[in-house]
Amino acid sequence: MRQLKMNKSGIIIPVMSLGTWAFGGDAIWGKTDEMQAIDTARRAVEMGIVQIDTAPAYGMGKSEEILGEALKGIRDKVILSTKCGLSWEGVIAVWVWLVILQITLTVWFMAKGITCRV
What is the set of active-site residues? Predict the structure, then answer.
């Protein structure tokens, strides 16, 4: 699979990634079939799609929880990307809150495999 170098960091990433917004389920995507989502993530990695995109706001953390389960035993084979600056209250209100503390905590929690709701 074609890869790109990320500017100054030198990190090499594939040009294709698996997006996991639908894993979270919501009014747009409907209810999530968790086993199908887990199987999808694992199959994607088997097929060489090793970059996976997620975000704390996808299903208010549900996508990250499912992805955590899917990557057990294969976490070292993937590159995870996420978004920072989204926060929420309840299940409806999502807003942008991009401050250095929130970014730092999001990255730290993600590295530990913990859903970040800062």
Answer: 58
**Tokens describing residue 70:** 């899917």
* Cβ-contact 95, 102 below 8 angstroms: no
Structure tokens at 116: 């970040």
Q: What is the pTM of this model?
A: 0.72
CA 44/CA 21 separation, integer angstroms: 15
- Rounded Cα gap, residues 100 and 34, in angstroms: 33
Each residue's pLDDT tens digit, 56-109:
778 878 888 899 999 999 999 998 887 766 666 655 555 555 666 666 776 777
Beta carbons within 10 angstroms of residue 23's beta carbon: 27
